[in-house]
Design brief:
The protein has helices spanning 2-19, 90-97, 123-136, 153-165, 237-241, and strands at residues 24-28, 39-43, 47-51, 56-58, 79-84, 110-115, 142-144, 148-149, 170-174, 183-191, 195-206, 215-222, 228-231, 249-254, 267-271. It is α+β, with helices and mostly antiparallel strands.
Length: 275
């Protein structure tokens, strides 16, 4: 009877979360935070997804068409994580996840979990609920991301460098005693060598020299700040031969901002792809 009641509570919480999908979002690590009791993990460059207890959804609430064999025996409560294949494989992963007719390619996709929003308690308690479920049920594609205690900013830097050396994207640090917070939270931070943002293409400039007859650079406007800047690095020859369209949204990285708020050394990463 007690187990049935607990399951009912989980289902109700999961249903409520699914109906009002508003996932926890990361803020940026500054390097002056008090990290007492915090934990760190790798930041996986995948597709953010939430299993609401019945459906797999994107961070925007759109249903992701995962095949039934892939979600077999998934828990009847919400879990939050990243769809992932391997490092430096985002384009392939996205093509699999975005396919309206999912196939066997999904066998290579893992669901890396970093939180259980439908359960109360600290992070370790929330993940323990999922771990208990996985121990009692055969689920092939769900893995819980390891959360490692940290004590200093020096340890954050060391961990980040180890991830980057393996071809990873960055790290995530968080306060495990914080509850799951809907929306942007200063209790969970992304740590990267480079900052990243999104921009809109305003104008295309023709190339010179080795890029003659192709795209040279772009005039872009940052989506958040509205600052306009030139973007000319990070493009493949294929993209230069087939440049983006005016109004298209790109993701780019940069070192920091100038005193005028412009991104310093901006580099193209990819075209924005969002489910």
């Amino acid at each position: 009877m007690i187990k049935q009641l607990v399951l009912l509570i989980l289902l109700l919480n999961s249903a409520l979360f699914g109906k009002n999908l508003n996932p926890m979002l990361l803020q940026i690590y500054k390097g002056d935070e008090n990290l007492t009791g915090w934990v760190i993990s790798e930041k996986f460059d995948g597709v953010r997804a939430i299993w609401d207890g019945a459906n797999l959804c994107s961070r925007n609430g759109k249903i992701i068409n995962a095949p039934k064999f892939w979600t077999e025996n998934f828990p009847p409560f919400a879990i939050d994580g990243e769809l992932w294949t391997k490092r430096e494989d985002f384009e392939n992963l996205y093509s699999i996840v975005a396919d309206s007719k999912p196939g066997d390619e999904w066998k290579s996709v893992k669901f890396l979990i970093f939180d259980v929003p439908s359960v109360k308690g600290n992070l370790f308690s929330r993940l323990a609920n999922l771990r208990e479920f996985l121990n009692k049920n055969e689920v092939k594609n769900i893995e819980i991301i390891e959360q490692i205690p940290i004590n200093s900013h020096k340890e954050v830097k060391k961990f980040l460098n180890s991830v980057l050396a393996k071809g990873g994207e960055g790290a995530v640090i968080r306060d495990p005693n914080s509850p799951y917070i809907n929306g942007r939270s200063d209790k969970i931070l992304k740590v990267k060598k480079f900052l990243d943002s999104e921009c809109e293409v305003l104008q295309i400039y023709n190339g010179k020299g080795k890029f003659k007859g192709k795209m040279g650079s772009l005039l872009c406007r940052d989506i958040k700040s509205g600052v306009e800047f030139r973007l000319g690095s990070g493009f493949s020859d294929e993209i230069r031969s087939n440049p983006p369209k005016i109004g298209q949204i790109l993701t780019y990285k940069f070192q920091n901002l100038t005193k005028n708020g412009k991104p310093r050394f901006p580099v193209f990463i990819r075209f924005k792809k969002e489910l």
